[in-house]
């Protein structure tokens, strides 16, 4: 896939391949595990770590998370939707951690557009945060379990997921047994498969993989209705003390038997 960038060494177009960006002349730039790529040539760096350092990046992130710039962000998103076509190409120069970039991308997608979007910044620490921006992961779990041990085992993973930015909801009306995935409103899976050894290798369970089509709208509406009837889980709802953590560790030891 051809990117929005050109090679900084020869100005030829860069194409994204497995783990790298490559130009026709053979220059390659690795894609970091966080998802960003550093295109600044070594001979053009004026310091060992250009741009904001780790502490500055953390301070900026903490400030943005408080929502002080939310009204400005919402206004920019509205303008982006109004002033762009059906398939806009957007470059955020000096994107920082992608606060506005991710929001505008989500707004364009929600408006039914097909944007190509990229951001640039000189700080590696900022880019690592930007690579995580815009990833909205939501998990819906039953509020009333059928097996208390499995229920507690599931919740033992919640603190780690919540700290990573995952949103978790507990379905308050009762038990929720659906095994449904929706990715980027483009791909869905509906069936009985759990992502564990027993389900995949012993029970030979099945799921239907859906790519495109109006049925994805039905899946999205169903998940939206589930969220309306669910309560958001916070760290305060989790066992994060010594004994809670110990209990979680014991449950994980016996998880393969469950």
Structural class: alpha+beta
User: What's the pLDDT, averaged over the residues?
Assistant: 83
Q: What's the helix-strand series? A: EEEEHHEHEHEHHEEEHEHEH
Return residue spans where pLDDT drops below 50 for at least 5 consecutive residues: none
Q: What's the total helix number?
A: 9
Our measurement of the CA-to-CA distance between the termini, rounded to an integer number of angstroms, reads 43 Å
Major beta sheet summary: 4 strands, antiparallel
**Shape designation:** globular
Based on DSSP secondary structure assignment, what is the total number of beta strands?
A: 12
Tell me roughly what share of residues is in helical segments.
Answer: 25-40%
| Side-by-side strand order of the widest sheet | 1-2-3-4
| % residues in beta strands | 15-25%
Radius of gyration: 22 Å
């Amino acid at each position: 896939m051809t990117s929005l960038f050109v090679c900084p060494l020869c100005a030829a177009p860069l194409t994204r391949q497995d783990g790298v960006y490559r130009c026709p002349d053979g220059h390659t730039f690795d894609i970091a595990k966080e998802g960003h790529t550093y295109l600044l040539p070594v001979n053009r760096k004026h310091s060992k770590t250009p741009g904001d350092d780790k502490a500055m990046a953390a301070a900026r992130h903490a400030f943005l998370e408080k929502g002080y710039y939310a009204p400005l962000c919402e206004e920019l998103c509205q303008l982006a939707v109004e002033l762009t076509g059906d398939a806009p190409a957007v470059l955020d120069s000096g994107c920082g951690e992608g606060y506005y970039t991710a929001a505008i991308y989500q707004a364009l997608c929600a408006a039914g557009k097909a944007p190509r979007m990229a951001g640039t910044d000189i700080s590696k620490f900022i880019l690592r945060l930007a690579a995580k921006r815009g990833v909205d992961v939501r998990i819906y779990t039953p509020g009333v379990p059928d097996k208390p041990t499995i229920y507690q085992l599931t919740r033992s993973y919640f603190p780690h997921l919540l700290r990573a930015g995952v949103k978790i909801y507990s379905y308050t009306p009762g038990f929720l047994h659906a095994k449904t995935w929706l990715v980027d409103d483009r791909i869905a899976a509906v069936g009985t498969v759990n992502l564990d050894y027993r389900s995949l290798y012993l029970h030979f369970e099945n799921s239907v993989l859906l790519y495109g089509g109006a049925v994805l709208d039905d899946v999205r509406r169903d998940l939206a209705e589930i969220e309306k009837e669910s309560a958001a889980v916070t760290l305060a709802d989790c066992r994060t003390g010594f004994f809670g953590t110990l209990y979680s560790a014991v449950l994980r030891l016996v998880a393969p038997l469950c």
